[in-house]
Here is the input.
Amino acid sequence: MPRKIRELIADLEKAGFINRGGKGSHRNFLHPDCSMPITLSGKPGDDAKSYQERDVRESIEETKR
Here is the structure.
């Protein structure tokens, strides 16, 4: 079962990412140790796409290096 967008947001915030807002259903997250901002689209209750889960996982791993 895919995770929800709200779960990905919680993971990013727990890792220290800051929600910089966005337009519509898009949210931009920044972290000082991450080279690129990560953008999540969708309502909090929507199922996350596999590429969104991958991007979140890779961004969190990058901050740990």
Summary: The helical segments are 5-14, 50-64.
